[in-house]
Design a protein that fits this description.
The protein is of the alpha+beta class. It is 22% helix and 33% strand. The protein has ten helices and 25 strands. The strands form six sheets. The protein has a six-stranded antiparallel β-barrel. Strands 14-15-16-19-18-17 form a six-stranded antiparallel β-barrel. Strands 20, 21, 22, 23, 24 and 25 form a six-stranded antiparallel sheet that branches. The longest helix is centred in the first third of the chain and has 49 residues.
Length: 484
């Protein structure tokens, strides 16, 4: 234990100064003990010794020893705790610094200076570089937080806005009315030939179009024409004449690189680019939420339960796909188009679920549509007509009577091209010049590309004792003043 080296004695022989333990007080008082445990100075001051007599005066020395021991113990404990904490903190700091240096070496591009991540803001810069660490039960994994600015910058010139002006017809109390309306969507530049720039989009973006306009990223607009379409797959290719595009615009646009959607994985980052809400090109980002989602081609959310529906598979993503995004690009972080967005699928009944046509499924269809002859819409007063009235064959009729899908001819006007070609009431028109038609609106849309006097080839299904037999007939289109 601790030893008290300070004697409890007073010097009574110093009349001119008080001295305690060899130290002079300089007051001239000398302290003396009385018999009753009191002590007094020669100056007359008296002090009471509360500890009793002289025999107990060493008790104060023992308490002092205990106090000193306690204090020393406390100080030792405090300093020991601080020391251990400092060592622990230093160890954590060195470990974190080592990990950051390893991450920095992995993340920095070859031309970047060492330590650039920390210079850019430590953990925030590390997250922007795409390598934050996530602790799991199976160890440490690296999650990717991607900066897509460079990818978007490279792909944006290959995405266009598509504006569609068409005539909407409706019947009210037996009277037919029509009005001109407009719609907007997106498209992807997928190639060019000697005279045309070729753009893929959704079929529903250009359906029944009276006039198509394409707007490039520099804001310039040009007229476009339909080239080929696949209604069942909701795909269409349109063409822009190279002669209509300014040289400055040609220098700013690009042809998209098509990727492989078969190699996608769930959770992979994706970016959607398109003409959202018709405001112009915009970008949304997300991940692949699911693959091979089986959904009917017809939007069942609109209640079209009486139509035949083809089941197709789509890419599901949480990147926002809004009206106007249809026909736009879904790209991976390498800038490759891996899907063609479609807002029609799912509609507004869901949130956080967008869909895209897998590019691997679309590629062969796109290549086929690119080879079709470009169709230039004819002015309404110059268009040819068949000379029939027709109605759509409904799903109920198909199911109950085994009718093929197409346009049921309910009447034929005598003297018209259809009458001369041998078309009769009850025939079902299923195609024109090799293009499938399943509704009267679609048949009218196809006829809008042909002038009066043009000979077209119709595919019809004609009833017989053995059932419907396919037949091909040639029809010379009449003028619009004839009754249709």
């Amino acid at each position: 234990m601790y030893e008290n080296n300070y004697p409890n004695s007073y010097n009574h022989d110093a009349p001119s100064s008080d001295s305690v333990n060899g130290y002079s007080q300089g007051s001239g008082d000398a302290y003396q003990y009385g018999s009753s445990g009191t002590y007094y100075s020669t100056g007359g001051s008296q002090y009471q010794n509360h500890t009793g007599g002289q025999g107990k005066k060493n008790k104060g020395g023992t308490g002092k020893k205990v106090a000193i021991a306690v204090c020393c113990g406390l100080f030792f404990g405090v300093f020991a705790g601080v020391g251990f904490q400092a060592v622990d903190s230093a160890s954590d700091y060195l470990k974190t610094k080592t990990e950051k240096e390893q991450i920095s070496q992995q993340a920095l591009p070859e031309n970047s200076p060492e330590g650039a991540l920390e210079d850019a803001g430590g953990e925030q810069a590390q997250a922007q570089a795409g390598i934050p660490e996530v602790e799991t039960g199976n160890g440490t994994v690296h999650a990717t937080v991607t900066d897509v600015t460079e990818v978007v910058k490279a792909v944006m010139p290959s995405v266009v806005s598509v504006n569609n002006r068409y005539v909407e017809r409706m019947t009210f109390f037996g009277q037919e009315y029509s009005q001109e309306v407009g719609g907007s969507g997106s498209g992807i530049i997928v190639g060019k030939n000697d005279t045309e720039l070729l753009i893929v989009t959704n079929y529903h973006v250009v359906e029944s179009a009276e006039e198509l306009t394409v707007q490039f990223t520099d804001g310039s607009q040009v007229q476009a024409q339909a080239k080929g379409q696949d209604m069942e797959k909701d795909l269409a290719v349109i063409a822009v004449q190279l002669s209509d595009i300014d040289a400055s615009t040609m220098g700013r646009i690009a042809i998209a690189k098509l990727g492989n959607s078969d190699e996608l994985t769930v959770g992979e980052p994706v970016v959607a680019i398109g003409n959202a809400l018709g405001y112009g090109q915009s970008v949304t980002a997300g991940v692949v939420s699911a693959l091979d989602r089986a959904i009917a081609a017809t939007d069942v959310s609109q209640g079209n339960q009486n139509e035949d529906m083809e089941i197709n598979t789509f890419i599901q993503t949480d990147a926002a796909i809004n009206p106007g995004n249809s026909g736009g690009a879904l790209i991976n972080i390498r800038g490759e188009v891996i899907g063609i967005n479609s807002n029609k699928i799912g509609g507004s009944t869901v949130e956080g679920m967008g869909y895209a046509i897998p590019i691997s499924d679309a590629k062969p269809i796109i290549e086929d549509l690119k080879t079709k002859q470009t169709k230039i819409r004819i002015a309404e007063e110059d268009r040819g007509i068949l000379g029939i009235t027709g109605v759509d064959v409904t799903a109920d009729t198909i199911q109950l009577y085994g009718f093929p899908k197409g346009v049921f001819v309910s009447s034929v006007t005598e003297g018209t091209g259809a009458h001369k070609a041998g078309i009769i009431r009850g025939d079902i028109i299923t195609g024109i010049n090799g293009e499938e038609v399943v509704s009267m609106a679609e048949l009218k849309g196809e006829l809008s590309y042909y002038a009066a006097g043009t000979v077209v080839e119709l595919t019809i299904m004609q009833g017989s004792a053995a059932g419907f037999q396919e037949k091909t007939v040639e029809v010379t289109l009449g003028r619009s003043e004839s009754v249709q």
